[in-house]
Design brief:
Blueprint lengths: L2 E3 L1 H9 L9 E8 L8 E7 L5 H9 L9 E5 L13 E7 L4 E7 L7 E5 L16 E4 L33 H15 L11 H25 L9 H10 L11 E8 L3 E3 L4 E4 L10 E4 L3 E3 L15 E4 L5 E5 L9 H11 L6 E6 L16 E5 L7 E5 L6 E6 L10 E2 L1 E4 L2 E4 L2 E4 L2 E6 L1 E8 L15 E6 L8 E3 L23 E6 L13 E5 L12 E6 L5 E5 L12 E9 L12 E4 L5 E5 L13 H11 L10 H9 L4 E10 L4 E9 L7 H12 L6 E7 L1 E18 H11 L24 E2 H9 L4 E11 L10 E3 L11 E2 L5 E4 L11 E10 L1
Parallel strand pairs: 25-26, 29-30, 36-37, 38-43, 38-44
Antiparallel strand pairs: 1-14, 2-3, 3-6, 4-7, 5-6, 7-8, 9-24, 9-34, 10-13, 11-12, 11-33, 12-24, 14-20, 15-19, 16-17, 16-23, 18-19, 21-22, 25-32, 27-31, 28-29, 28-32, 30-31, 35-36, 38-40, 39-42, 40-41
Helix pairs in contact: 3-4, 5-7
Protein name: Baseplate protein J-like domain-containing protein
């Protein structure tokens, strides 16, 4: 958890530790032997007071307790820390002075950061080290850099252009002109006169019939092949022949926050809308997807600030401490456990953190509406745990969320506004409900000839009655309202679309009556009825270019026939596409429900998609089957399969012999990162296992990154400051983005496996920086600190491209890396020397 501290409050807390029989770490000093390769390091720990230090010395040196049980080290990159032999750990300690401990650590760690934890409890299990002072970060070999670590955001790419489509057809005027000329040839001295004359009326009727016949013939010929088809039904059927499913668009789905005054259950199908009332023009109606129990304790959760010591959460935080909301007692452990159990419930899947007040003024005016983020909690007991502040005795609940939901910005929750501390700047909210766009409809299809009752089109759930149509292919039901809402399915043609339809069947008795209360026989939706048997209760939905949807049931051969006395009951939603994409805080109207105070959508709704355009369908259907390979035969097939995932930038595969069978080793380069998470690795392994050949094993591993050590000497123009130019160079050669949104030279997605680094590439990028007149010297080598084995490649501009060696070669499974990170020198560095310019 990345935390911000108020230094003055923290110092006051440190001075009060002794009164509470607590101690804490103040600072650490690292001492290394003068040898080139020391075998151990000495750590001098300074504490805030001398309490319990002699007991620690006695516990290790007299009682035989291992030092790793009291002081744990974690972190490291090349030399990880741990409690096992060979890992960086504490092997001995000695009490030296009033508030000092001397620790012996071996082996000596690498250039990365390590964290030292002090763990000491009394006989009752209560900690004797304050939680805010129980750990400290340190380095064995610190380095100094002057780089800007602020992240750069990638700009949104411009939308692609759509091709124009032109259609030609015969019309009424051409036929009328042809008939007039024919009459002139066949009837001498005949001329067209008034349009009301009988002969002219007959010509017009014949021209109109010809126009309709030719239009029908043209449409038949137009739909006869994929390249000329225009009707959406034809395109969808052509696509199904090649296992391509046309995307029909989908309804917008989002999350809304509910505020309740008592514990209630919000049922599935409860309405939420934008505007004053759902029936108003322009209002967008949403329905809850499933029932959800809501709790008043989750309406507003304030972060716990440890006596005003912790004031904010920084970007990248994965956990937070929550204070107990009213009317819970913060001194009651039972109340804290109750809140913890509430956050562990399966229905509480996520929380929303938002900036509720302006940090500068402490009021709601001027708050940043973009300061909101959805945080998906870890499953089960990992979601929340109870903690206690030993200084105040108050209980708190610590929550943990997924790594991919790490905070994207800093959230302040305690601010000094005009001399007064204002709490609740940022808050957590937990009563989240999923809602989907579309007005509910209840339509009954009766046998032909049966009288239709009067529906109720003004009710929220619109009631309609229609007749189904008998055809030789099966019974057809045309939905009266458009457009039918489709559920969210990924575009691309791989997965069949699914609608919001729920279909049941009942029957008409001899008196012409029917009832829904006796129970309905459910029917299932399919993309086609080719594989359905005569007794399968299946139906399919087809939507044309006008948005009219038809349900088709089986004929007894392909799918079951509902029967002549069938009453088909359909429940569905109407409304989809980009029309459901509304801005944040627009969904504020809701149906009356006791205990429900208010609702709102904290985020912009962007998930609504329009139907796939016809020109895109025609372009994709003929080549869709080529893009989906069901079995990986070569190494290139494994690479292509891995790179289909959005989180994979590049992949490299090679064979290895395990002694009994062949193993395919696949190295993964993640998108926008250099570290492969274990969850990502398992997901990629499962994705590749679906196409693995029998007799081959899979081994998914992170890419092997080769750090480089680069020295670049440039000459600045006379009008440019050398310091500013060095900063511009560091930004241009970073792993992030520059101020213009352009990726840095060493951005992870710019380099792939086996790609060499040419000296001309580095020089060319340096010369693109405004103010650099020329490159004086460039030195490059593999970064191997302390060994001296890597040869140094020095190139000057007059040697390019005639130098014998002007690049650094990499093996096929290696990727170069220059992170230029002061915390991780072993990930590569580049140093800039600017000569000339203004000083």
């Amino acid at each position: 958890m990345t935390r911000r501290f108020d230094r003055e409050v923290l110092q006051e807390r440190a001075r009060n530790l002794a009164a509470a029989n607590l101690n804490g770490l103040a600072r650490v000093e690292v001492a290394l032997l003068p040898a080139d390769d020391p075998d151990h390091a000495g750590l001098t720990l300074f504490f805030h007071n001398s309490l319990h230090l002699a007991d620690l010395d006695t516990a290790v040196n007299l009682d035989g307790i291992p030092p790793t049980d009291l002081f744990r080290i974690r972190g490291g990159s090349r030399l990880p820390a741990g409690d096992d032999p060979g890992q960086v750990r504490v092997t001995a300690l000695h009490h030296d002075g009033d508030n000092r401990l001397l620790l012996r650590v071996e082996p000596v760690g690498d250039y990365s950061s390590y964290t030292l934890w002090a763990i000491y409890e009394d006989a009752g299990g209560d900690p004797l080290v304050d939680p805010l002072f129980d750990r400290i970060d340190f380095k064995f070999r610190p380095g100094c850099f002057d780089l800007d670590c602020a992240p750069r955001l990638e700009p949104v790419p411009p939308p692609g252009e759509r091709p124009d489509v032109d259609y030609l057809a015969r019309d009424f005027d051409s036929f009328r002109h042809l008939l007039i000329n024919a009459m002139r040839q066949r009837v001498p001295e005949w001329e067209p006169s008034s349009e009301a004359d009988l002969d002219q009326v007959i010509l017009d009727l014949l021209a109109a019939d010809g126009d309709e016949i030719c239009d029908f013939q043209d449409r038949v010929m137009q739909e006869a092949c994929l390249g000329r088809a225009r009707k959406r039904l034809s395109l969808a059927r052509y696509g199904r022949l090649l296992d391509y499913h046309v995307h029909q668009g989908n309804q917008a789905v989002t999350q809304v926050l509910a505020e309740v005054s008592a514990e209630i259950v919000i049922p599935a199908g409860h309405p939420v809308w934008s505007g004053g009332h759902w029936s108003e023009p322009g209002a967008v109606l949403f329905l809850t997807s499933r029932s959800r129990r809501c709790f008043p304790a989750l309406d507003r959760l304030l972060p716990y600030h440890w006596g005003e010591a912790v004031t904010a959460l920084d970007a990248g935080a994965l956990q937070a401490d929550l204070a107990l909301p009213e009317p819970l007692d913060p001194l009651s452990e039972a109340d804290a456990q109750g809140l913890r159990d509430l956050l562990r419930r399966p229905e509480v899947e996520a929380l929303v953190i938002e900036e509720a007040l302006n940090p500068a003024t402490g009021s709601a005016n001027g708050r940043d509406p973009r300061g909101r983020q959805l945080l998906r909690l870890l499953p089960g007991e990992q979601a929340a745990e109870v903690q206690q502040d030993p200084l105040s005795g108050r209980y708190l609940v610590r929550i943990h969320w997924r790594r991919e939901d790490a905070l994207r910005r800093r959230y302040c929750f305690l601010s000094d506004c005009d001399g007064a501390m204002v709490d609740g700047i940022s808050v957590f909210r937990g009563n989240l409900l999923e809602v989907a766009q579309g007005r509910p409809h209840h339509t009954l299809f009766l046998p032909p000839g049966l009288a239709l009752p009067v529906g109720d089109p003004q009710a929220l759930v619109r009631l309609d009655y229609r007749h189904w149509e008998p055809t030789r292919w099966g019974r057809l039901c045309t939905l009266p309202a458009t457009p039918l809402s489709y559920r969210d399915t990924p575009p691309g043609g791989d997965r069949p679309t699914a609608t919001t339809l729920r279909v049941g069947l009942t029957r008409v008795d001899a008196a012409g009556n029917w009832s829904e209360a006796a129970g309905l026989q459910p029917w299932s939706e399919r993309s086609d009825l080719i594989g359905s048997r005569g007794g399968d209760r299946h139906f399919l939905v087809e939507t044309d270019e006008r948005g009219i949807s038809r349900l088709r049931f089986g004929n007894g051969v392909n799918g079951a026939d509902p029967g002549a006395d069938a009453v088909l009951v359909c429940d569905y939603q109407v409304g989809q596409g980009s029309a459901g994409n509304v801005g944040a805080d627009r969904l504020t109207g809701f149906g009356t429900l006791p205990g429900l105070v208010s609702v709102r959508n904290p985020f912009d709704v962007t998930s609504g998609r329009d139907p796939e355009p016809p020109e895109q369908i025609v372009r994709r259907i003929p080549v869709a089957y080529r893009a989906r390979q069901k079995r990986a035969v070569t190494l290139e097939d494994y690479v292509k399969r891995a790179e289909e995932l959005p989180e994979v930038s590049h992949a490299h595969a090679r064979y290895a012999w395990s002694g009994s069978w062949r193993t395919v080793r696949i190295a993964i380069d993640p998108v926008g990162a250099s570290a492969l998470e274990e969850e990502q690795r398992r997901r990629i392994e499962g994705w590749l296992d679906a196409v693995r050949l029998i007799g081959e094993d899979l081994e998914v591993r992170p890419a092997r990154y080769v750090p480089l050590d680069i020295d670049l000497v440039v000459c600045a123009g006379p009008d440019y400051w050398a310091g500013d130019l060095a900063f511009e160079l560091a930004e241009a050669f970073s792993e992030g983005y520059d101020a213009n949104g352009e990726p840095g030279f060493f951005h992870p997605d710019a380099w792939t496996f086996g790609q060499p680094l040419h000296a001309s590439q580095v020089m060319g990028r340096a010369l693109r920086v405004t103010g650099v007149e020329r490159v004086i010297r460039l030195g490059m080598r593999r970064f191997e600190p302390g060994t001296g084995r890597a040869p140094l490649l020095v190139v000057t501009p007059d040697q390019v491209p005639v130098a014998e060696v002007d690049r650094i070669e990499l093996r096929p499974w290696e990727i170069l890396r220059v992170a230029n990170d002061p915390d991780h020198l072993e990930h590569g560095r580049i140093r800039f020397t600017v000569e000339g310019g203004r000083r």
